[in-house]
Design a protein that fits this description.
It contains eleven helices and four strands, in the order ααβαβαβαααβαααα. By secondary structure, the chain is mainly alpha-helical. The protein has a two-stranded parallel sheet. Helix 2 (39-71) crosses helix 3 (111-121) and helix 2 (39-71) packs antiparallel against helix 9. The longest helix is centred in the first third of the chain and has 33 residues, at 39-71. The two termini are 27 Å apart.
């Protein structure tokens, strides 16, 4: 038996007689000269929705990876911490209680920062104590990736790139949710359009660069290397965190490495994500539709789980 789920927002929209009233739309107050700039609103919305979706999935993958690493029964291993200079006397945001959690820092809380924070706390289901906002003036702290690498003493820095479609017209493009980021992220087709691969992004106005998936995988590998996981353990973490599969989806050979006989040697080396790396993984991801489909399902699962819990009042 199928059950239909209706959210409170859906009920309010259905009972609102002014909903979709042409005279109350933003466009009705724009003159002919200003109408040429109306497509910019859709592009602005596309940027916010795409970044909120992509970053939320990235954070969830890294959080899952950190959780999986802690499950390996080797007490001598230490999970990577945010603080890279323990000799400093200034207090850090990581304590014994929060060490098991993934801490997310945001520079600025303008329109994008506000929507991203909201998405992380709702769809991403992060605890409020796991989100730190440093300033409301991010333009004063804008730093290139190489400078961040120097300050943070790590090259495990992800810089997602986004691509505009050259076939989709922003004038005729319609977003689900009528301009609301949270409503747009309730729509499966809209969310999958932000996914890096074309198998899920057909008809997208803006989408994540396909290299993002490779960089995510390499970032998880780097985290595993910091705590001395073996090759087999690293591949297990990658499969579960990135693809949501318990069985290994990738092998050491897929990274251009030879598997050791006992499969315990640490064949992986740290990947510099700032200067960019070329690995066989990217070509594999481009050619393997099964991996693309599995990642797309993992991508949407974060949002579908939240929708289910919200509709059935299972949110804490």
């Amino acid at each position: 038996m199928a059950l239909s789920t209706i959210s409170c927002n859906d009920i309010l929209r259905d009972n609102d007689i002014t909903c979709n009233l042409p005279s109350l739309r933003f466009e009705s107050a724009v003159d002919e000269k200003g109408s040429d700039f109306l497509p910019l609103r859709k592009k602005s919305h596309a940027i916010v929705v795409t970044q909120c979706a992509a970053v939320s999935v990235m954070i969830d993958i890294l959080r899952k990876a950190k959780s999986l690493i802690q499950d390996f029964p080797k007490p001598e291993r230490k999970t990577p911490t945010i603080e890279t200079q323990p000799e400093r006397k200034t207090p850090t945001i990581e304590t014994q209680e929060t060490r098991k959690k993934l801490i997310v820092g945001l520079i600025g809380c303008g329109r994008l920062g506000f929507q991203l924070t909201t998405t992380l706390l709702t769809n991403g289901r992060l605890d409020t104590d796991c989100v730190q906002i440093s300033t409301r003036r991010p333009e004063l702290l804008g730093l290139p990736a190489r400078r961040l690498r120097q300050l943070l003493e790590t090259s495990n820095i992800i810089c997602p790139n986004f691509e505009w479609s050259d076939v989709v017209d922003s004038r005729s493009f319609k977003w689900a949710g009528q301009g609301s980021v949270s409503h747009s992220l309730d729509d499966q087709q809209t969310v999958l359009r932000t996914c890096p691969y074309a198998v899920a992004a057909e008809g997208a106005l803006l989408r994540s660069n396909e290299k993002l998936m490779e960089v995510l995988i390499l970032s998880v590998v780097n985290i595993c290397l910091q705590v001395d996981l073996s090759t087999s353990e690293t591949l297990s973490v990658v499969s579960q965190a990135v693809f949501g599969e318990s069985q290994p989806m990738l092998t050491a050979r897929d990274f251009g490495l030879w598997e050791s006989r006992k499969n315990i040697a640490r064949n992986f080396s740290s990947y510099d994500l700032v200067d960019g790396v070329e690995t066989p993984v990217l070509k594999l991801l481009k050619d393997n539709q099964s991996l693309q489909t599995r990642f797309s399902a993992r991508y949407w699962q974060l949002f579908s789980d939240y929708i289910h819990k919200r509709n059935f009042l299972h949110l804490r």
